[in-house]
Amino acid sequence: MVEHYDYLIVGAGLFGATIAERAHRAGKSVLVIEKRSHIAGNIYTEAQNGINVHKYGAHIFHTSYDDVWEYINRFAKFNRFTNSPIAVFDGKIYNMPFNMNTFAKIWDDVVTPDDALKHIESERKEIIGTPKNLEEQAISLVGRTIYERLIKGYTEKQWGRPCSELPAFIIKRLPVRLTYDNNYFDDKYQGIPIGGYTHMVENMFEGVEILLNTDFFENREKFKSMADYIIYTGPLDEYFDYQLGELEWRSLKFETKTLDKENYQGCAVVNYPGHDKDYTRVIEHKHFEFNTSPKTIVTYEYPAAYKKGDEKYYTVNNDANNKLADGYRSLAVKEPNIVFGGRLAEYKYYDMDDVIKKALDLDIK
Ligand code: FAD
Ligand code: UDP
Q1: pTM over 0.90
Q2: Which ligand 2 atom sits nearest the alpha carbon of residue 150?
Q3: CATH superfamily of 5-81+188-247+316-361
């Protein structure tokens, strides 16, 4: 270890890895500190029985940014995985996102897009004017039948609140298609890095010095004095000692089982939108990589309220939290020689490609 670096990067997740790779390639000296015992942040995968297990939730890479796709392909080969989850409600399966296969299953007389539209349009009429909350937004998108079977329960479990009290934008992420296309994403590129995300991130960090099990806040002044520039990817409010108040998060609990069978659910992601189950989805990891192991590993994903010490998974971007985050952002711009980047430090619901895009667009001085 040397005494002084050009860059100190706090956090070995995807944002930290992209900056570290770019700075190292530009000839800068870089030290990365990571409080966990491993690299890769929330995209960390761990090989168990030859299957790459997504330890912090299932991750599917998808993007429409050409530069991000070109960049990330330098560190991994991507397979042809296309996310096409199914939802199980009342013992029946439905394709997600909502498309002609879903509509034909919901309404017996649906064959063509016009048949589906007839049903959707007659149900949509219930909402007059601009939708005021998620419930109204969902009904105006696909009608009450689909809302009650495939959206209501999932969303209320996920966010811990009635849909009538949630902001409409959450549901805008879900595409609605009048084609027989089960692809969850509309993006140009999609896939899973062959060999797992951890291996991909290892390649990004090649040649970079990393200290694991090292928390920035345990020695903040020393770490700050060690580099010209700091890239901070930890929680925004924690950096400022919560002086304006705590930002809100949703957490998750995972229950993972190894099963002595080859195929448990026939699909990587199965959603459970009903209130009869406490979990929202079951992940069968092997299907992400077309793995033929005689065993399988499944993870049940349970949404949970966040308490201090839990993992912070989802930002809760309602008006109150966005206002608080803005308060912290005005403090952040006054801090000299430090960039706040990524999901935790920007308090944004970023996908992986958004995080890489942000890090690629940053000037390396
Ligand atoms: P992180 O991965 O959280 O990395 C931050 C790192 O900083 C962590 O390793 C943390 O330990 C470390 N750190 C924090 N504080 C300190 C400190 N004080 N000292 C040292 N280290 C510190 N995106 C997609 O594109 N596709 C998906 O399918 C997808 N699925 C998702 C599923 C779930 C359940 C969740 C929650 C997110 C999903 N995402 C998905 C989003 C994706 O996980 C994020 O965009 C990405 O991981 C963010 O990377 P990051 O580097 O900003 O943050
Ligand atoms: N959603 C839903 N039913 C489903 C899956 C998702 O109603 O079967 C809604 C839910 O409100 C969720 C949002 O769509 O919060 C976004 O879900 P997605 O799985 O795209 O997001 P992720 O959790 O992967 O970030």
Answers
A1: yes
A2: 3
A3: NAD(P)-binding Rossmann-like Domain (3.40.50.720)
